[in-house]
Structure prediction request, 412 residues.
Amino acid sequence: MRREQFNQFKTLLKRLSENSPFYRRKFEEYGIDINKVQSMEDIQYLPFTTKEELRDAYPLGLQAVPDEDVVRIHSSSGTTGKPVIIPYTKSDVDVWAELMGRCMETAGVTKTDRVQITPGYGLWTAGIGFQAGVEKLGAMAVPMGPGNTEKQLQMMVDLKSTVLIGTSSYGLLIAEEVCKREIKQHIRLKKGIFGSERWGEKMRKRIEDELGIQTYDIYGLTEIYGPGIAIDCDEHSGMHYWDDHLYFEIIDPATGNVLPEGEYGELVITTLTKEGAPLLRYRTRDLTRLIPGQCACGRPYPRLDRIIGRTDDMVKVKGVNIYPGQIDGLLRSIEGVSSEYQVVVSHIDGKDVMTLRVEMSHLCNKIDIETMVAEHFKKLIGLSIHVEALEVGGLPRSEKKTKRILDYRDVG
Ligand code: ZN
Prediction:
């Protein structure tokens, strides 16, 4: 696999320097001689590609093939400024369908399944990607698109859909409606495949219980095909990703250094076979880790852990990167504390000091909880911190996204 991967990588570099004006300019700017790349590990000496650069290339500055080879474009939504446009060749569309088909298969979808697809169709990729994968596998696609819950439920009942694809929030809404209307006995759903937006264990469990299904996390981003580049299997111990088409690295988002397998950092993706808009070391801003070892299911594909947050959420204290997702996980493993927390970082007497405020049940002993959380934190994240345990309800709640990290180091 590694040898094949390196050959693909060399071919990619050649294609980029010959056919992509975007990368030719970048290689020149950085003085890169692609002939000096001797191993897959040498990738760490090549420059990253960022979302800002993709935006600056609007509309078609990323295109690396002649116009006659482009069969479609997709676009990622731009919350600020210009969107990113990604051109696809026939081969890109086929590979994407194959990878998505593989995702379906990994989640145990078969030809006799009926798959209700609720993500949107159009410029934003999701719907059509799922549809292509379902058809590639040979199952029956029910291409609903988003919204109209009334109709969704009617089709789900009448067509006896067995798989639901969507966002986890839509999965929850469907689960609640099914419960409210008391139509669970008419529903034939077995599986839910939900986009890997961050969703807690509690939400997952509610959807699974109320609909009586198994759920699978699927990962992807428009810049790299779209959804379908990783998914969990029945073991639910991380998402398998397709290393015959993609090369994943985890870097320290602050320094850009590649991190060893098992450590949390920012996911960086290189497309090995993509033609229309190949990307070299694309910084996804998603925080996760590569899981060492082979999965119990026996599949040869390596695994990526769940996304624990975005690089924008990260805070660095005494040289250690701390991600909100890690704290979520840590608190879940401790009895007697709630899932709410607040991090306060300040600079006192020339040193960074971090205080973690948590909420504890009134039955617990304050000193015990504070000691236990601090010990867990030290063991898991490698940093000595102060812990302050408050009664449940002691931390601020907000309808919108709660600000959990307060960094006072730059103030004054
Ligand atoms: Zn597996």
User: Anything to note?
Assistant: DSSP finds ten helices and 21 strands in the chain. Residues 233, 235, 240, 295, 297, 299 surround zinc ion (CB under 6 Å). The first strand starts at residue 70 and ends at 76.
